[in-house]
Design goal:
This protein is of the alpha+beta class and about 150 residues long. It contains 4 helices and 7 strands. It has a 7-stranded antiparallel β-sheet. A hairpin with a 2-residue loop joins strand 6 and strand 7. Helix 1 packs across helix 4. About 25% of the residues are buried.
């Protein structure tokens, strides 16, 4: 299993940061590895909400289905994802620090098939993917705090 962990600090209110991030339909706006994302229902994010995502990986798009398995507004949301090449658990935690919000994103990836054999050689690439995603999240949350 590979684990990615990144933290950012933004001046966005914790509730705003949480609500935006907990709606995984927004992930394509901030994660450059996601080519599309959509909620399966029009309801606000809740325990059991599911999302269809397509990831770009190795020159291909691969579908994944994510489900919210834990939701503690405005402090924590956990998504469990299943795909043909990888399963993932994404934990996003929010805390207040002075007038800012600290967002910590942890992704635990379990590769399948051939990717499982290649995992020991993907460390640098995975780190880059994680850093790009969190940088995109930081950009979008900063935009929310200005708008």
């Amino acid at each position: 299993m590979a684990t990615l962990r990144e933290s950012i600090t933004v001046e966005t209110p914790i509730e705003t940061a949480f609500d935006y991030t907990a709606d995984f339909a927004n992930i394509e706006q901030w994660d450059p590895g996601v080519s599309s994302s959509a909620a399966r229902s029009a309801e606000p994010p809740a325990l059991g909400s599911t999302y269809d995502l397509k990831y770009r990986f190795g020159g291909r798009e691969t579908p994944m289905v994510y489900e919210i398995t834990e939701l503690e507004r405005p402090h924590r949301v956990v998504f469990s994802g299943r795909g043909t090449m990888v399963d993932a658990v994404d934990t996003i935690e929010f805390s207040r620090k002075d007038d800012s919000t600290v967002v910590t994103y942890t992704a635990e990836l379990t590769f399948k098939g051939l990717l499982k054999l290649l995992e020991p050689f993907m460390g640098g690439r995975l780190d880059k993917i994680g850093k790009e995603a969190v940088a995109g999240l930081e950009r979008e949350l900063r935009r929310l705090s200005v708008g």
